[in-house]
């Protein structure tokens, strides 16, 4: 695992955006796995800037989602489908046909999870998966105690994560209790994992994931098992590394 410490979130965003641009220059049809939440926004902004200035042509790239709320209508502004379309797909000048994600509205959620894992492998697998990290060490929505071999499935959000995400909704009550998330085993199949963590609030989770034992109690520690994992942290998030 490679750990890169950058001065701030903007620098982290620029560094990762350049790594994505580089990948797309080498492999124009790359399948890029994206995360939602606040942390990756500087990556998407920097990448969209590179695209606008002609630094990379992403017109053949494809985007896939890491997770999705269960039960929010697809058009809900906070469904992850809407968020990824708004923050990634549209700013990159791509259409909805370049995008794939799990169906959080499916009547048979289990079947939707299996279909998504299948769709990812049929698409050739994820080339680069961008990850954030929860204050409890979750990746995707694999909360502590998730199996390190887990596949895409339905998970119940912890109260802590619902509270962390309430800022995107009008009230805590509106935050769904369930999500579909790529499993840790699914995430580990991506060819390159890039985790971005910024801010002091992530410092404990980063230290445990990078320097602690590999454990289901800290899902992001599974990155230690991956042959090509990069952890990009700003100085605040790196503050508890030895
Ligand atoms: C969301 C996701 C989550 C977030 C994590 C951190 O798709 O995968 O694991 O990355 O909850 O969220 P932020 O970046 O908002 O602190």
Automatic annotation (TrEMBL):
One of its GO terms (molecular function) is glucosamine-6-phosphate deaminase activity. InterPro entries: Glc/Gal-6P_isomerase (IPR006148), Glucosamine6P_isomerase (IPR004547), Glucosamine6P_isomerase_CS (IPR018321), NagB/RpiA_transferase-like (IPR037171). Signal peptide: none annotated. Gene3D superfamilies: 3.40.50.1360. Allosterically activated by N-acetylglucosamine 6-phosphate (GlcNAc6P). CDD domains: GlcN6P_deaminase. Its EC number is 3.5.99.6. The keyword Hydrolase applies. Keywords: Allosteric enzyme, Carbohydrate metabolism, Hydrolase. The keyword GTP-binding does not apply. Pfam families: Glucosamine_iso (PF01182). Pathway: Amino-sugar metabolism; N-acetylneuraminate degradation; D-fructose 6-phosphate from N-acetylneuraminate: step 5/5. Residues 10-225 form the Glucosamine/galactosamine-6-phosphate isomerase domain. It catalyses: alpha-D-glucosamine 6-phosphate + H2O = beta-D-fructose 6-phosphate + NH4(+). The record marks 146, 153, 155-156 as: Part of the allosteric site. The active site is at residues 67, 136, 138, 143. Belongs to the glucosamine/galactosamine-6-phosphate isomerase family. NagB subfamily. Catalyzes the reversible isomerization-deamination of glucosamine 6-phosphate (GlcN6P) to form fructose 6-phosphate (Fru6P) and ammonium ion. This is Glucosamine-6-phosphate deaminase. It comes from Streptomyces chrestomyceticus. The lineage of its organism: Bacteria, Bacillati, Actinomycetota, Actinomycetes, Kitasatosporales.
């Amino acid at each position: 695992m490679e750990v890169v410490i950058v001065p701030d979130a903007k620098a982290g965003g620029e560094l990762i955006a350049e790594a994505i641009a580089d990948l797309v220059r080498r492999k124009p049809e790359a399948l890029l796995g994206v995360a939602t939440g606040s942390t990756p926004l500087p990556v998407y902004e920097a990448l969209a800037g590179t695209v606008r200035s002609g630094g990379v042509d992403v017109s053949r790239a494809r985007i896939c989602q890491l997770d999705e709320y269960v039960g929010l209508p697809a058009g809900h502004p906070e469904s992850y489908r809407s968020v990824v379309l708004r923050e990634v797909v549209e700013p990159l000048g791509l259409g909805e046909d370049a995008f794939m994600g799990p169906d959080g509205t499916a009547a048979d959620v289990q079947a939707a999870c299996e279909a998504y894992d299948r769709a990812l492998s049929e698409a050739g697998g994820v080339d680069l998966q961008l990850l954030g990290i929860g204050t409890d060490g979750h990746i995707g929505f694999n909360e502590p105690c998730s199996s390190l071999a887990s596949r895409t499935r339905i998970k119940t959000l912890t109260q802590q994560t619902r509270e962390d995400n309430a800022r995107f909704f009008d009230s805590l009550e509106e935050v769904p209790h369930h999500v579909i998330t790529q499993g840790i085993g699914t995430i580990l199949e991506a060819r390159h994992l890039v985790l971005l963590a910024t801010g002091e609030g992530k410092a404990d989770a980063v230290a445990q994931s990078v320097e602690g034992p590999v454990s289901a109690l800290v899902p992001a520690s599974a990155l230690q098992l991956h042959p090509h994992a990069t952890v990009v942290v700003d100085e605040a998030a790196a503050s508890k590394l030895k």
